Amino acid sequence: MNWVVGLTGGIGSGKTAASDYLETLGVSIIDADKVARSVVAPGSFALAQIAEHFGEQSINQDGHLNRRYLRSVIFDQPEEKDWLEALLHPMIRSQILMDLQAPSSSPYVVLVSPLLLETDQWTLADKIVIIDVPEALQLARSASRDQASIESIQKIMSQQLSRVDRLNRADFIIDNSQTLTELHQQLANLHSTLQEQTLSKTVQQLSRDTRETD
User: Fold this and answer.
1) Residue 212 located in a structural domain
2) Is 214 domain-assigned?
3) Which band of pLDDT confidence, cut at 50, 70 and 90, is reported for residue 1?
4) NCBIfam families this protein is in (predicted)?
5) Is residue 116 within 8 Å of 30, Cβ to Cβ?
């Protein structure tokens, strides 16, 4: 399997801005959010199961998942959140694993996921990168971007790993509290470091393989 770098951070931290820039450097990106959307695409088994369990109001008129309705249900009913996760997380993980195993010309592959550390997705990563911002900035950016209430954003944050716990799990920390230019510079430095580590691992593996065939 490709060498995998897991990239995550709290809501409003700038995960997409970070992964978009790494993609311009030639890095292959696997976006867990996109995988999650594909799993519940119109006509999918998962979407049919959700409609049966939560009712037809969980499906929009265009046939897509009514995310706003479903979000309101699971926030208020933890047992429903557990049911939904039990259905979707294995499917999402299976598809991510298939994508990670696909051939790539990139020196490493980035798995960007908001739930990297909250699920077992972290076990798929060789290194973990945290995009970090203060919680007050998370709230401000998310409210501006999503036109959501502070209360609803705080609910989302309460269900994510705390900032302290995230940072304790990091191999690399990217501070995204400043300008986009500064974010890109940190990511360029990180890319160089990861390329070096990938090359070192490849050399070690080749050396090990050579010894085993002697």
Assistant:
1) no
2) no
3) low
4) dephospho-CoA kinase (TIGR00152)
5) no
- Per-residue pLDDT of 170-198, as tens digits, reads 999 999 999 999 999 999 999 999 999 88
The reply to whether 13 sits in an annotated binding site is yes
Residue 88 included in any domain: yes
Q: What is the pLDDT of residues 118-170, one digit of tens each?
A: 999 999 999 999 999 999 999 888 888 877 788 888 888 888 899 999 999 99
Burial class for 168, CB neighbours closer than 10 Å (0-12, 13-18, 19+): exposed
The reply, when asked if residue 201 is annotated as ligand binding, is no
Extract the tokens encoding 32.
Answer: 């867990």
Give the burial string for 102-114 (b: 16+ CB within 10 Å, else e): eebebbbbbbbbb
Is there a binding annotation on residue 16?
yes
Q: Kindly state whether residue 33 falls inside one of the protein's structural domains.
A: yes
CA distance linking residue 24 with residue 32, whole number of Å: 19
